[in-house]
Amino acid sequence: MIILLAKSDSSDNNNNNDEYSLEIERKFKRSICTYFIQPIQFDFINIAELGELLSHPNQWSGIILTSKRCIDALMMSIEPSNNRHLLKVVQFFTVGTATRTYLLDKLSIDSKGYHAGNSEDLARFIVEQYKTNDSNDHRPLLYPCSRIRTDPLMKILNENNISVHEIHCYNTLANQNLDDDFRKFKTFLSTLITSEMQIEIPIVFFSPSGVDNLYDHIQRYLHDNESSILLRYIAFGRQTAQRIESKNMNVWFTVSTPNAQSLADDLYRKIFDK
Q1: pLDDT tier at 217 (50, 70, 90 boundaries)?
Q2: Range of the domain at 60
Q3: Measuring CA to CA, how many Å separate 156 from each of 59, 125, 128, 166, 211?
Q4: Strand ranges, E, within 110-266
């Protein structure tokens, strides 16, 4: 079996050192081949403005980071003034263990709420934190995010009278090399299968924008009438699953927790525990 990961962090189509490749190899003992296609690329914006906001850490009750790209933007914004030490006084909230680990690796800062599988669950965690602590801290939370964010985080926090200052720090764009990447993938497939073979290919989507940007290419390159390819769609998060369904594609399953180990374990159960 070949599994296609629509993952923006991998610069190499066959990145065998990626945590997802390693976890799948651990679980399946090389019986599954992983292949990466980057659906999106990023254009960072408002970096100077973000740096100015971060230079006054005491005006924030916390900082919310929902992706690695938010951390990249944060690092870019503090680099010119070398003010990373100021961030030690602020509490951080992150979505998922991957984002938490990235923050630890880059800035040696730990965070809360990382067990939340998506931004909606993180928002509810923050609300509970405020209620539990009976907080009289009325300073806003700082939320660097994508310009096209679709999560309900701000809505949930505002409904619970928690102020949030949102700043867009990057644009999410379609990868300009997708046609070439899919041609390479088709060539890769041709070295492994013949026209008489039926092959099952799970495609793992990590974000709604990944679904949007890959949809036309999947139809063009993998959905021709002569193809013996059976596609299975796997989602990271409810919003990604909803976006897959909006394209009239069936979600095979949604990963139980947004990390590499859960993907490998859930995939194994789906295949063998029928």
Answers
A1: very high
A2: 42-173
A3: 21, 11, 12, 14, 25
A4: 141-146, 164-174, 199-205, 229-235, 251-254
Distance, CA of 114 to CA of 140 (rounded, Å): 20
Q: Does residue 109 sit in the same domain as residue 156?
A: yes
Provide the edge-to-edge strand list for the sheet that holds 92-94.
Answer: 40-44, 164-174, 141-146, 62-65, 92-94
Give the count of beta carbons closer than 10 Å to the beta carbon of residue 9: 16
Whether 118 and 242 have beta carbons less than 8 Å apart is answered as no
How many CB atoms sit inside 10 A of residue 54's CB? 23
Is 118 in the same domain as 76? yes
Q: Which pLDDT tens digit goes with each residue over 131-185?
A: 877 667 789 999 999 998 877 899 999 999 999 999 999 998 999 999 999 999 9
Q: Are residues 154 and 266 in the same domain?
A: no
Q: How many residues does the chain have?
A: 274
Q: Interior CA angle at 153 toward 132 and 130, to 5°?
A: 15
Domain count, the chain: 2
Query: The pTM is what?
Result: 0.81
Per the DSSP assignment, residues forming a β-bridge with 201 are 231
Q: What is the pLDDT of residues 81-139, one digit of tens each?
A: 777 788 888 999 999 888 999 999 999 999 999 998 788 999 999 999 988 776 677 89
Within this chain, do residues 114 and 139 fall inside the same structural domain, yes or no?
yes
Question: For all residues of the chain together, what is the average pLDDT?
Answer: 89
CATH number assigned to the domain comprising residue 204: 3.40.50.10090
For 93-96, which contacts have Cβ atoms below 8 Å and span 24 or more sequence positions?
A: 93/62, 93/63, 93/64, 93/65, 93/122, 93/125, 93/126, 93/141, 94/64, 94/65, 94/66, 94/122, 95/65, 95/66, 95/67, 95/119, 95/122, 95/258, 96/257, 96/258, 96/259
